[in-house]
Specification:
The chain has 411 residues and is mainly alpha-helical. The protein has one domain: MFS general substrate transporter like domains (Growth Hormone, Chain: A), CATH 1.20.1250.20. The protein is 82% helix and 0% strand. It is globular.
Amino acid sequence: MAVNKSNRLVLTMLFISCVVCFVDKTAINFAIIPMKSELNLSSEDIGMIMSAFFLAYAATQALSGYLVDRYGARKILSQGIVIWSAGTVLSAFSAGLTQIVIARFIVGLGEAVFPPGSSVAVAEHFEKSRMAKAKSILTSGASVGFALGALLVPMMIAAFHWRTMFVILGVAGGIVALALWQVLKKAELAHDGRAVAALSTKQDKVSIRAILKKKITWQIAVCYFFTNIIFWGLQSWLPLYWVNVRGMNMVTMGAWSAVPPVMGFLSFLVSGWLLDRFFSGYEKYLLAIAASGTALFIGLMLSSSSIPLNFAYLTAANIFLNTISITVFVTIMKRFPVKMVGTATGLINSLSQIGSFISPMLMGVVLKWTHQNYTDIFIMLIIFAIIILLSVMGIKNEPSGFSLPEQEVPV
């Protein structure tokens, strides 16, 4: 399947959707600063708010992957964007802890669709030899979303109010959902009127058992579990660290916070190229390099008192974490049959997103126990990076990719 105009348009729209997804996902990290004082939230309350998103996100990954395989990327992805946009708008009308937790839970339900849905969309429209490049371009939207969120969200909060900011983001998401629906519909018609989403019309328990029986499923899940703890631990608590410990103001902190994701954008593209060019079937080596780099630069953050140097080290750590992320998803896309990409992605991501769920609460508890000592947080994250390194070294090199035994392929 050659890369044509229709495929490029699909990839562009998926990229934009990814940007909006991550702006919405990260907005709470900045909004929580004024919300903390306005709504009298404790550290434990903040941890609950952050984790509510990941509870829904992790719990519904497997179901989301199944639904995408069953009903196609267009329908499920578009509906997912509508759901998370509605949750974002509801965040604006929250009057206390319970309402905010519910709103963030709804955002998590909608965004749970995006990882398996976008992987299926790529698998539907691109040859295997082009999947890593397409997925890396799409996933680079996460860095753009983080950068835009870091720049625009604090500015909108300062200029208007955190409630107004959530309304603006929710409306923007609704517009993107409609546009994605139209683009994917036209792409389906471009394939001789056949719905490319109908790659699989049936999924059963046999396919799920086959995925869970594979050792690589659990190896990838463990790797991504600890990656998510590190990544979302940094994303959730660093804004408070920069403001409360380092004395930065909101706008300056937001500007500096845009630097790591800007460089992360390039890291996704480079990682996709490396995976296609040098590490196809040997992904564990790239994962090991990235895990080592993550541990190193978080350690350097711990030892530095310079804000510019700290953001430089954070940028480097972010680059390596992005490399782990894209490698995980490309490994799934290349080592599982196309008809099972959504389900496999959903299952593995569901297991690994438990790390995202516990991360904000874990950080909150550790900070409470240590009387807001962030040094212990950084040490803990370094240990988790070392665990990632150890877990990926057991992955078997399979240049030819993974395939199910004949009798286990669902029909």
